[in-house]
Amino acid sequence: MKNKIIEFAEAEAFEKAKEYFFKICGFQEENEKHRKMLPLAMNARRLGLSGIRPRAVVSSYGPEIFRDRKVVLDGMEFYCPAFENVNPDCVKKIYAYMLTVGECTYRDEDDIMDQVFADIWGTAYTDSARDMLEELLKQDLNREFSGPGQEVFLSDAFGPGFYGMPMGKTNDLFRVVEAGRIGMSVKDSGLMLPVKSCSGLYFAVTDTEGLPHPNCRDCLGTVMS
Q1: pLDDT in tens, 162-189
Q2: Are the beta carbons of 29 and 35 closer than 8 angstroms?
Q3: What 3-state DSSP class applies to 160?
Q4: 3-state class (DSSP) for residue 90
């Protein structure tokens, strides 16, 4: 799989995006105040839906690109402190990806709550699309490692800004996977555009013992600038 573009249907992403939206907002359907706010939230989604287009570009590599506790892609090195605990002998495959959902659009003159809800919908769709991508990667692994004793696990995504990987590495990853083909761009600072985007590296491993807990994504991310 080399720089493969994957499109996700908004309709397929919606149900999980709605779950993420409720979680981010703290909505509880039995709460009367929240029930009154829900139509406003759903209307913000409806008005901005034309900007939502979930898509990703993904490349897969063999374990040989992980050496000296670094991932080396096209001569560019990717490192974070969490790699120190990953056993190279357990690595079977590595995926590099960038993903964007565009944005749930709004106008500057829209009510502030409409703007807030639109932004949250963008985040929720990003989380949903990433879940869908991970499911496709797991299916890919199941096809490749389907024999007895070949159980392989997909790690959490290591990426710029998380687990101590510098934000500037987003530019390198952008070049490796040619993410411009899905309408993305990256500023010198590492900021991805559209803003509702994510990127990183997934490890396929036979043993999860050396992988950090997902809760460490942000705390270790402060180690390096």
Answers
A1: 999 999 999 999 999 999 999 999 999 9
A2: yes
A3: coil
A4: helix
Quote the pTM value.
0.91
State how far the Cα of 71 lies from the Cα of 25, in Å rounded to an integer: 37
Beta-carbon contacts of 75 under 8 Å, excluding residues fewer than 6 positions away, are none
Contact call for residues 220 and 212 (beta carbons, < 8 A): yes
Sequence-ordered alpha helix ranges (H) in the chain: 10-25, 32-48, 112-144, 169-177, 216-220
Structural contact between residues 27 and 33, judged by C-beta atoms closer than 8 angstroms: no
Neighbours of 21 (CB within 10 A): 25
Q: Residues 6 or more apart from 165 whose CB is under 8 A from it?
A: 78, 79, 80, 158, 159, 221, 224
Beta bridge partners of 158: 201
Cα distances (Å, whole numbers) of residue 69 to 65, 203, 215 = 10, 13, 21
Q: What is the pLDDT of residues 39-91, one digit of tens each?
A: 999 999 999 999 999 999 999 999 999 999 999 999 999 999 999 999 999 99
Q: Which residues contact 176 (CB under 8 A, 6 or more apart)?
A: 59, 73, 74, 76, 96
DSSP state of 155: P
Taking every pair of Cα atoms in the chain, the longest distance, rounded to a whole number of angstroms, is 60
Angstrom distance (rounded) from CA 129 to CA 182: 14
CA distance 78 to 219: 19
